[in-house]
Amino acid sequence: MAEFDLVIRRARCATAADVFDADIGIRNGTIASLGSNLADGVEEIDAAGRWVLPGGIDGHCHLDQPTSDGSKMADDFLSGTRSAACGGTTTVFPFACQQKGQSLRAAVDDYHQRAEGKACIDYAFHLIVTDATPEVLANELPALIREGYTSFKIYMTYDDLKLSDREIIDVLAVAREHGAMVMVHAENADCIAWLTERLLAHGHTAPRYHAEARPMLVEREATHRAIAYAELVDVPILIVHVSGREAIEQLRWAHSHGLRIYAETCPQYLFLTADDLGIDDNDHRGAKCICSPPPRDKANQQVVWDGLESGAFQIFSSDHAPFTFAGPQGKFTAGSEASFDRIPNGIPGLETRLALLFSHGVETGRLTMQQFVALTATNVARMYGLYPRKGSIAVGADADLVIWDTGLDRRIRNSDLHHNVDYTPYENISVTAWPALTLSRGEVVWRDGNYLGSAGRGEFLPCALPEPARPKPQPSGGNTW
Ligand code: DUC
Ligand code: ZN
Ligand code: ZN
């Protein structure tokens, strides 16, 4: 009788801390043993010295999220998690988004129904709080946190999503009291509205003006304000999709003042620039790259790389927000001549996130393998309450593992991807690494170019209170409120 269900032999493993060679023995979907010359498995895979890493955790993606402008996300839990698995991601965090006037509980129930029977890898939910009513603050949010929804996003922009400054402070106070992690979309709504109005009045409607309506100042100011509110309330926060130098300077300022401010960046800030939003006013292909904050310039790409290398960022996510380019409910839902402010924000990236960072971060020597693992898996699990079940290679952890092919000479092609979007913003970018095999709780879901998962095998994961969300210990004689 074999001792393990599966043994991966001669793996070159990396965690956020270590690199080591081991056989990995898997039983009942978890890692049962790490060692050399392990006993037999029912199945055996020879990794032959290849990198075996924790499966990626995408801490920020949007799947089948209801919208308010008539558009429809191209990926649901089926196509989205399939695409993720084929790119080496084994856990996703999409968003259960409260509509204004809706209870948070109703948003969560609706979102469970959307995921039910579809996900092929494990998933947890972030909440999006858009209506911070007394009932939400006093009862719903605390109850949902207790049930395992321990992270939530708030917006400082978008009329249908944004909170007032007072509401932000109130939500931060609830997070502090109950130990949840707040993710902040930091852009100044009034500045964007003012700039947009002026651009449109001058007939500047093409996609490329999206970047002019949301300059870095807008992100810098909101990032600073969010940090100030976190300091006031004395609670850690996580700033999502940071795009460049000015916001990073705010992060560094916060760190130099001893504040627990965490941050995420995304592939679009390393691989795209504002030029990708269009070369002239007739260029509508730029709609493919409309996302917020917008991509900046080459110099800012380097600053974001520097931030990844130096620890300004803890998390690297895709911010997959999938809208088709040509489909009826995609980027041109409001018509083929829609002005930039009526084009849905978001770009796809679930499947390409890991290969892009591995190829251009690790294989170029910018990042260590441990940093790659930390940014793409371990830190995500820690920030959002899934560690140590997810995000590492350790006895007792789920056997979510990826065996990597390296030294490749490939280019990203949308025709090779498994999402439901008719383009990738990363078309033709070179990659030297790609997952050869993805294991989700010990089951092969991607191998040698073939998707082998099945709808509904993914499990919902309630999250623990994240340790990094813990406020700093108060000195004696601290706050009196
Ligand atoms: N914010 C996101 O987090 N995703 C897509 C669009 C946006 O503005
Ligand atoms: Zn956002
Ligand atoms: Zn997003």
Automatic annotation (TrEMBL):
Gene Ontology molecular function, alphabetical: dihydropyrimidinase activity; metal ion binding
Top-level EC class: hydrolase
EC number: 3.5.2.2
PTM info: Carbamylation allows a single lysine to coordinate two divalent metal cations.
Pfam families noted in UniProt: Amidohydro_1
Domain of life, source organism: Bacteria
Domain Amidohydrolase-related: 51-445
Keyword set, alphabetical order: Hydrolase, Metal-binding
Extent of the signal sequence: none
InterPro entries hit by this protein: Amidohydro-rel, Hydantoinase/dihydroPyrase, Metal-dep_hydrolase_composite, Metal_Hydrolase, Metallo-dep_Hydrolases_sf
Cofactor(s) required, per the database record: Zn(2+)
Gene Ontology annotations for the cellular component aspect, listed alphabetically: cytosol
N6-carboxylysine, modified sites: 153
Family: Belongs to the metallo-dependent hydrolases superfamily. Hydantoinase/dihydropyrimidinase family.
The protein's name in its UniProt record: Dihydropyrimidinase
Originating species: Vreelandella andesensis
